Amino acid sequence: MRCREVEVMWDEIRGDCKKSLKEAVHTHLGFCPGCQSVYEEFEGVAYHLSSLPEPEASCDLSARVIRHIATLRFGAARTPIVLTSVATPIGPLYVGFKEQRIAYIGIDTGETHDEVRERVETRLRRPVEAGPPPEWLVKALARFFQTWRIDDRTVDISDLTDFEQATLRATAQIPPGEVRSYGWVATQIGRPRAARAVGRVMARNPLPVLFPCHRVVDAAGDLHHYGYGLEMKAKLLRLEGYRSRS
Fold first, then answer.
1. CATH number of 81-153: 3.30.160, 3.30.1560, 2.40.330, 2.60.120?
2. Which residue(s) pair with 98 in the sheet?
3. Which residue did the predictor score with more confidence, 37 or 142?
4. Which residues are annotated as catalytic?
5. Could you tell me whether strands 101-107 and 93-98 are parallel, antiparallel, or unpaired per DSSP bridges?
6. Helix 33-41 vs helix 43-50: angle between axes, to the nearest 10 degrees?
7. What distance in Å separates the CA atoms of residue 233 and residue 35, rounded to the nearest whole number?
8. Chain-wide mean pLDDT for the chain?
């Protein structure tokens, strides 16, 4: 496992700052066979570590550690994400871009700019600054909402792991107005038993709408889950021309 994948896994495990570290780890172990086998191999070490007093939880400290690891690995000079807002047919979107590629999309749910900025910094491990929407960005989004397809040359997912990139690219193969299951996506990327891991990537998708996790449903064909609510998921599918079987 590469350092980058360990960083992402740690971020997932410790993502809920309301939980203690021990609770978060035990929850993760409950559904991750790979970590279970590693835990069993080093159970003695884990026991002694668990006996140590637990430090005070700090979401801010966690974010700083993640950024520090990224700085050590990639160097201090990282291209910043420019965060802006663009009006679209589904409402205003927060859009983060670097150079001339979109790296982040977020539907505006009333959060403050600072709250969105912190989330983007944590997810993509890059500094974020505010800026106006450039013309190429406005045109790229306008084309998307006409065709419901994104030009791969206008998006940037290079900050994600190989597994995450493969998963998101597989969702882009789903035609607008159609749906596929988590298992279908897992099979497309050559990991047919990784449907649950695919679901975790969908939940952390930094480019929803463009990489259409709203077109991914459960094995029964139910909409199942969406970070912006099932109503928004259904709305996006209706705009694309999807008609449910019910």
1. 3.30.160
2. 101
3. 142
4. 213
5. antiparallel
6. 90
7. 32
8. 82
Tell me: pLDDT of 72 over 70.
no
* 58: DSSP letter: -
Task: Please state, in angstroms and rounded to a whole number, the distance separating the CA atoms of residues 176 and 80.
Answer: 32
Higher pLDDT, 146 or 243: 146
Residue with tokens 């279908």: 184
Position 55 scores a pLDDT of: 55
- Contact between 94 and 83 (Cβ < 8 Å): yes
How many Å apart are CA 181 and CA 199, to the nearest integer?
10
- Range(s) within the chain of domains with CATH label 1.10.10.10: 160-240
Rounded Cα gap, residues 22 and 50, in angstroms: 8
- Residue 142: the pLDDT is 96
Please identify which residue in the block is written with the tokens 């780890």.
Answer: 25
CB 61 within 8 A of CB 46: no
* Closest alpha carbon to 141 in 132, 150, 152: 150
| Fold classification of 160-240 (topology level) | Arc Repressor Mutant, subunit A (1.10.10)
pLDDT at 242: 86
Q: What is the largest CA-CA distance in the chain?
A: 58
Q: Please give the single-letter amino acid code of residue 28.
A: H
SS3 of residue 108 by DSSP:
coil
